[in-house]
Design goal:
It contains 16 helices and two strands. It has 470 residues and is mainly α. The chain has a two-stranded antiparallel ribbon. The chain is globular, with a radius of gyration of 26 Å. The N terminus is likely disordered.
């Protein structure tokens, strides 16, 4: 691509003779390759040839040598200073290409955001939906299981479709998801709730794979890092949806109105994503990467197990174990989601370390936060632990989805991401009931200590992750 990504040791050198009278010295510039570097260089090839004898025979004074070294250092610093919020180093013309890449990613940001907006709104509306369908806890759990069961085959199919159709799958998946999410809020019986949530599961699986596959394609084609920022959009959507839907319910809004409004936003986002015109990538001959993908999927399953367990049980831990009131216990999942959004936004703006380092940090931070929460004697200490754990776990999903996209290669990213997403989602489903079983056998503190041990496993898995097929 026209932009350059942190290549100080291999950047292009061009020798341009000095035009200052009386010096006759040549200067060596270090430049990032740009779209204009080859066809519109400030000095033509014929000019270089005409100046070559003079440059070869001239002698550089000590002053001019110092000046050249200073200019070279300033040039390298300037290249580094153009690092954008997604960690790409470009020359000035290359920054135009970077800006164009970010422009192409904006519809995808909206897709991630409305995806999270729905699930945040759904969580806030769930008590009212349980009442209007007269569902018991066990029946509601079975209804939620319909989402998971329906999403798994949809993920598998969406991976292949993403390889075939590229970015064109994103608005289609958004449309299917937007139509499906309008109906659960209108369900007044258990069969209607089961069927509507099964359709939501199909839309969820397809959309999850489609948007992550497109994010991986943008990273590969443009040499930029956008996965952290896009997943931050999802986390912000969850937070805004939960808070907004809670306020609307407090004002008397019916769940069907709230979820119907979110459905309209999803459909509008589908129209916005019609601007995504990235063609599907041609398939390349490559070895099957089943084992590396299984490793990535297994690590993602562990990360999602910890994440879902903490999300599902943090409020109950505060209320039952630390005798907190509803106002304080509600802060548990809220602060956890806010910490994940903040961690992803911060990670997006910082040049990323290697994958193993990121996942080691994620596991260690999650384990530290969970041990603080599990041993806390006051709700504020437990909340601080949730924030620490959320900041660490924020890195896991975008990092691992990015690895899966790179392992899949051109023409295979969708299938690779669907494999990893299915395995990860299994961990997400297992988390809450597994913590419930451990807590029943011991206590909620024991359940959170079990989550801490899973976070340690996450950190220990970091060295086994491969960043590329090679």
């Amino acid at each position: 691509m026209p932009s350059c990504s942190a290549i100080p040791a291999t950047s292009t050198r061009s020798t341009i003779p000095s035009l200052r009278a009386g010096t006759g010295s040549s200067r060596t510039y270090r430049a990032c390759r740009s779209p204009w570097s080859e066809r519109s260089s400030p000095v033509s090839e014929s000019s270089r040839r005409s100046f070559a004898p003079r440059s070869a025979t001239s002698r550089r004074s000590p002053a001019s040598a110092r000046y050249a070294r200073a200019r070279s250092a300033r040039g390298s610093a300037a290249c580094r200073s153009t690092t954008s919020s997604i960690g790409i180093c470009s020359s000035s013309p290359g920054s135009f290409e970077c800006g164009r890449t970010l422009k192409h990613a904006r519809p995808l940001v909206a897709a991630f955001a409305v995806f999270g907006l729905y699930w945040g709104s759904w969580a806030a509306c769930l008590p009212a939906i349980q009442r209007q369908t007269s569902a018991s806890d066990a029946q509601l759990g079975l209804a939620l299981l319909c989402v998971a069961v329906a999403s798994l085959p949809a993920m598998l199919a969406a991976g292949r479709l993403a390889d075939l159709f590229g970015a064109r799958l994103v608005p289609v998946a958004l449309t299917a998801f937007g139509i499906a999410v309008a109906f659960p809020g209108r369900a007044h019986s258990l069969p209607a709730l089961y069927v509507s949530l099964a359709f939501v599961g199909v839309g969820t699986g397809a959309l999850d794979v489609a948007i992550n596959a497109q994010a991986a394609t943008i990273e590969a084609r443009h040499g930029v890092r956008v996965m952290d920022g896009l997943h931050a959009g999802f986390s912000i959507g969850v937070l805004c949806g939960g808070v907004g839907a809670g306020l609307l319910r407090g004002a008397g809004a019916h769940p069907s109105w709230i979820l119907g409004g979110v459905a309209v936003l999803v459909l509008l986002t589908a129209l916005f994503n019609l601007a995504l015109s990235t063609p599907p990538e041609p398939a390349q001959r490559r070895a099957r990467l089943a084992r590396p993908l299984l490793v990535v999927g297994g690590v993602l399953a562990v990360a999602f197990l910890v994440e879902s367990g903490l999300e599902g049980w943090s409020a109950l831990f505060l209320e039952r174990t630390l005798d907190s009131g509803p106002a304080i216990s509600g802060l548990g999942p809220g602060l956890f989601a806010a910490a994940m959004a903040s961690g992803r936004l911060l990670s997006q703006r910082v040049e990323g370390p290697p994958v193993a380092t990121r996942m080691l940090f994620a596991g260690v931070a999650a384990a530290a936060g969970l041990i603080v929460s599990a041993t806390a004697q006051h709700s504020l200490v437990a909340l601080a632990g949730f924030v620490i754990a959320g900041g660490g776990l924020a890195l896991s999903a975008p990092t691992l989805f990015g690895v899966a996209g790179r392992l899949g290669g051109a023409g295979g990213r969708g299938s690779a991401l669907s494999t990893v997403a299915i395995l990860g989602y299994l961990g997400f489903l297992v988390g809450p009931p597994l913590i419930g079983a451990v807590s029943s056998a011991s206590s909620l503190r024991g359940g959170f200590l079990f989550l801490c041990s899973m976070a340690v496993v996450l950190a220990l898995c970091a060295p086994f992750l491969r960043e590329s097929p090679g």
